[in-house]
Design brief:
This protein is an alpha+beta fold and 257 residues long. The chain has a single domain, classed as Transferase(Phosphotransferase), domain 1 (Orthogonal Bundle), CATH 1.10.510. 26% of the residues lie in helices and 15% in strands. Strands 1-2-3-5-4 form a five-stranded antiparallel beta sheet, sandwiched between helices. Strand 4 and strand 5 form a beta hairpin. The longest helix has 17 residues.
């Protein structure tokens, strides 16, 4: 069996040197959005091991330079079960996470970049040797991971690999790579099953129930049938009142990391 590809490897320069990233900072969401929307984009390199064209970019802005991940629509590989424009789902994921008050998805906006329109997401400075299977072993991470788990259930994430959970150097854990979310047919695939059977606490349960009335902003990025299915999933999960189990062992992505 082939070993899975590394879950997160930064591109290198032409001479093989590790690219030097600009300043990375834990900014308030509104400030980060301003930088992403208005900063000048310069491509640093293409992220390896990505199914679609994914670029590490520098964002120059008067507030501060930063790094971001740019996913242009024209670099997407066609899929039979998702329409073109996967980048729109990346933005919808951020909008939903913010509406729920979870801040589990890095700030993400639509930009017309060097290779056309796509998503631009704040780069999360993290220890890339860490991933879900290492993070879940420490109880201090569980609240963040529970929120990502609940998010994936509501958003119908079909590709929550272990390496898509990043522990930022400023503390919170973020979920990345949400392009395969929000299908109207239930097709959940995730590695996060450790909380199966746990009852939601009041705060998490209230947020899940609020998702049954999705924010109006999602209508810009998702189809009506996808919004309707999101509402049904959130309502079911709120009524169920706890994290489900995968008794059949069929709802796992591959590779796992």
């Amino acid at each position: 069996m082939n070993e899975p590809a590394p879950h997160h490897v930064l591109p290198r320069s032409a001479d093989g040197e590790q690219l030097e990233l600009p300043v990375l900072w834990d900014a308030p969401v509104t400030d980060a959005l301003d930088v992403l929307r208005d900063g000048e984009i310069s491509v640093l390199g293409r992220m390896p091991y990505s199914s679609n064209a994914t670029f590490l970019v520098r964002i120059d802005h008067p507030a501060t330079p930063t790094a971001a991940i740019y996913k242009p629509e024209r670099g997407e590989r066609p899929l039979w079960d998702f329409p073109a424009g996967l980048y729109r789902r990346e933005i919808a994921a951020f909008e939903l996470s913010e509406a729920l008050g979870w801040h589990a998805i890095p700030p993400t906006v639509e930009r017309d970049g060097p290779f056309g329109v796509g998503s631009l997401q704040l780069f999360i400075d993290a220890n890339f040797e860490e991933h879900y299977f290492t993070l879940v072993s420490e109880e201090r991470h569980h609240d963040d991971l529970r929120r990502i788990c609940a998010f994936d259930l509501i958003a119908n994430n079909t590709d929550r690999k272990s390496g898509h959970c990043l522990a930022s150097r400023w503390g919170p854990i973020y979920g990345i790579d949400q392009g395969l979310c929000f299908a109207s047919d239930f097709k959940l695939r995730t590695v996060i099953w450790d909380f199966g059977g746990e009852t939601f606490d009041d705060e998490l349960g209230a947020a899940i129930r609020s998702a049954a009335e999705p924010p109006a902003e999602l209508g810009q990025w998702l189809r009506p049938d996808e919004l309707s299915a999101l509402t049904e999933r959130a309502q079911w999960l709120a009524d169920f009142g706890k994290f489900p189990d995968d008794d059949g062992g069929r709802r796992w992505p591959w590779p796992l990391v």
